[in-house]
Amino acid sequence: MYGQPGNGKTYLAEALFRVDSLPIYVPYAIECQGMIIKVFDPVYHHKIEPVEESATSVSFDAPHDGRWVRCRRPFIVTGGELSIGMLDLGYNAITKVYDAPFQLKANNGIYLIDDFGRQKTSPAEVLNRWIVPMDRRVDYLSFNTGGKMEVPFETFLIFSTNLQPESLGDEAFLRRIQYKMFLRNPLREEFVEIFRSFCASQSV
């Protein structure tokens, strides 16, 4: 999505997030090659509490595998603070546990890269990082020991920018982005209508 600042790009992404409200199941952690990767993050994964059982119930079986958490679909936003290192596994030398990158935590949800083109790293580096995942729906993450793991890439990826798309990436990458939405500036009459509608919604 591209267009001038203030034209509703982030608002539109949030509206897309509300389209599908079905819950998902997120693993607390995954194991690969003897390494533990923490996936569940309470900042982004909002747990849905189970319905309390009747007092007469005699069954204490969990409604689902306890290694998974039933939660709302994640909506993760990163902006100018995004660096290329944040898109790979983060290792905690004290706990000896890896932390999943944003795109893995956003699986079955939306990952919005806001103000794209204004990150600490160049747009070309970020775009090159996404070429394989967007094409094959799988991502490859690296351990600090040199090993790699394959994980599903099922996040709805959105780039939001106020720059022209052709200035951010080459044709090979832009071809992999199926939808390009231009949010133009509203006309004066449209702005007045939006302003009045919002005032009415706020009882002003």
Map the helices and strands:
Elements: E1 2-3, H1 9-17, E2 24-27, E3 29-32, E4 35-38, E5 68-71, E6 75-78, E7 90-92, E8 97-99, H2 102-105, E9 110-113, H3 123-136, E10 138-142, E11 148-152, E12 156-159, H4 171-174, E13 182-183, H5 188-201
Parallel strand pairs: 1-13, 4-8, 6-9, 9-12
Antiparallel strand pairs: 2-5, 3-4, 7-8, 10-11
Counting helices, strands and paired strands, the structural category is alpha/beta
Biggest sheet record: 4 strands, mixed
Tell me what portion of residues adopts beta-strand conformation: 15-25%
Average of pLDDT? 85
Q: First CA to last CA: what distance?
A: 31 Å
**Over all CA atoms, what is the radius of gyration?**
20 Å
Low-confidence stretches: none
Q: Could you give the order of strands across the largest sheet? A: 3-4-8-7
Please provide the count of β strands.
Answer: 13
Silhouette: globular
Order of helices and strands: EHEEEEEEEHEHEEEHEH
- Contiguous helical run count: 5
> Helical amount among residues, as a percent range?
10-25%
